[in-house]
Design goal:
401 residues; Pdz3 Domain; 2 domains; six-stranded mixed β-sheet
Length: 401
């Protein structure tokens, strides 16, 4: 089922089993794990004391199959979108793990390169318990996840950590983002006069695009943001389940103090539109370009600060929407290449008939979106260091021209 869902190459289409229902399948490993580095080279990043290869050794091949092809066949087939660097970086650590998948023949002989020395290895697959596996697997892919908030450097630089855009009304992200945005609006004159503003999206997996729009309006002004609005064409799949999902979201918004008026209006218009399409026997409802009434806003002085936007390889969905908007407004992209998404968005979670499996599937599709299907964003200034090391990242950004 995972492989079937992965074959669609759509990050919003996913089959999974919740952790609480996951069967504890025994795991085996050969005493080491590899991961893709920033140059797409697979290197040993975790090893047992008796492992036959040193840390940093480069995987060349296994059983006559080149390292990149091996990873595509054994891991890419289960996660999809393997053409994306972000997928290889985030899932490459699974290559030398065996959970008994009968459709994958685990390698038996591999060749590594360590400082120019070829090391042939016969793999000794052995059990590894979950308590030992979790930290080792974590070492193959790490992301910074700073708490949402604002801090100021000694030189006046304003660093804004935006590690989560979850749209759940009243959830942890909302409770942190609402006062942050209020502060941006209240202190705008001071903030935009800083030597630089850093919008830190490390750790952000997406959520609601409304957060990034509110942040943009607070920094660049509502008139500047409105000028970026495009006549995007969006079709919603009109179904009873999709209507129920959006209606439930709207109900939560109504029960939550300080909910976004724009989001509530958006949800109500979507529900009404899909209901009419269902009544008329139409499979889709085409949303108007802007579900919010057009309002004119006075233009604010442009920010004096140079505005940098930091992304890591996990930035997708609403995180990408934020990047699209902020780049158009003039932000400078730094950090790592992002993830990517298809034109299918806004997922609904479904429990499958078994009661165990879950399915995430999209409810709407963009027609003619500016950023293409599964297209990642590449930074103007790529960062070759460790994005988890915030201090080093700060010093690097301060040195940029």
């Amino acid at each position: 089922m995972r492989a079937y869902a992965a074959s669609f190459d759509d990050g919003h289409l996913r089959f999974y089993v919740p952790d609480k229902d996951q069967p504890r399948l025994p795991a085996r490993w050969p005493g080491f794990l590899t991961a893709f580095d920033s140059k797409d080279v697979q290197r040993v990043v975790s090893r047992a004391d008796d492992a036959p290869v040193p840390l940093g050794a480069r995987l060349v091949s296994c059983d006559g199959k080149a390292a990149d092809r091996l990873a595509a066949d054994h891991v890419g087939s289960l996660v999809g979108r393997w053409a994306l660097h972000s997928q290889r970086v985030s899932h490459g650590g699974e290559l030398f793990l065996d959970h008994g998948n009968p459709w994958i023949a685990r390698p038996s002989r591999c060749v590594f390169d360590a400082a120019g020395r070829s090391i042939p290895v016969t793999l000794d697959w052995r059990p590894i318990d979950n308590a030992s596996l979790v930290p080792r697997l974590k070492a193959t892919y790490q992301r910074a996840h700073e708490p949402i908030g604002i801090r100021t450097w000694a030189d006046g630089t304003v660093w804004i950590a935006l590690s989560d855009f979850d749209g759940a009304p009243g959830g942890p992200a909302a409770k942190a983002l609402e006062p942050l945005i209020a502060r941006l609006r209240a202190e705008r004159e001071t903030i935009v006069a800083a030597p630089r503003i850093v919008l830190d999206l490390r750790g952000n997996d997406g959520g609601s695009s409304d957060w990034s729009r509110q942040i943009a309006e607070a920094i660049w002004g509502e008139a500047a943001v409105a000028a970026t609005d495009k006549e995007d064409i969006v079709d919603w799949r009109a179904s009873a389940a999709n209507i129920a999902s959006i209606r439930e979201f709207a109900d939560e918004l109504r029960k939550t103090p300080r909910s976004s008026r724009r989001m509530l209006q958006w949800a109500d218009v979507i529900v009404a539109g899909m209901e009419k399409s269902v009544k008329d026997g139409k499979p889709y409802w085409r949303a108007p370009p802007d579900v919010e009434a057009k309002t004119s806003h006075p233009a604010l002085p442009a920010p004096k600060a140079r505005i940098f936007m930091v992304t890591d390889s996990g930035c997708g969905s609403a995180c990408l929407d934020a990047a699209d908007l902020w780049l158009e407004l003039g932000a400078i992209h730094v950090g790592a290449e992002t993830s990517a998404d298809t034109l299918y968005m806004d997922i609904r979670r479904t429990v499958l008939p078994s009661g165990v499996g879950r399915l995430n599937a999209a409810m709407k599709v963009y027609r003619g979106r500016t950023r293409g299907n599964n297209v990642a964003l590449v930074p103007k200034y790529p960062y070759d260091g460790d994005l988890v090391d915030t201090g080093a990242l700060e010093r690097w950004i301060a040195s940029l021209p």
